Amino acid sequence: MNHPRVLHVGFNPIGSPTNTGVTLGSMFEAWPSDQLFELYTHTRQTQSATGPHVRVAPLSVAPLDGLVRTALGNRMPKPVTDGLNPSVRRTGHVSAATRLRLAVTSANDIGPVLVRGRWLEEIERFRPQVIHSLLGGVRITKFVSALSRRLDVPVVPHFMDDWMDNVFTDGQLGGYARRVAERSIGQVLERSPLILTVGRSMQREYERTLGRPAEVVGNSVDFDAFEDLVTMRQASSDGPITLRYVGGLHLGRADVLRQVGQVLSDQPHATRPWRLALNVPAHDIPRADELAREVSSITNDGSVAPEDVPRTIVGADALLFLESTDPGITSFTRLSVSTKVPEYLASRRPVLAVGPSDQASIATLVRTGAAMFGGNGTSPSVLNDAVAALCQRLEQEPDRQGSTEPALREEFGRPETQERLRRALLRATSS
Question: What's this model's pTM, rounded to 2 decimal places?
Answer without folding.
Answer: 0.87
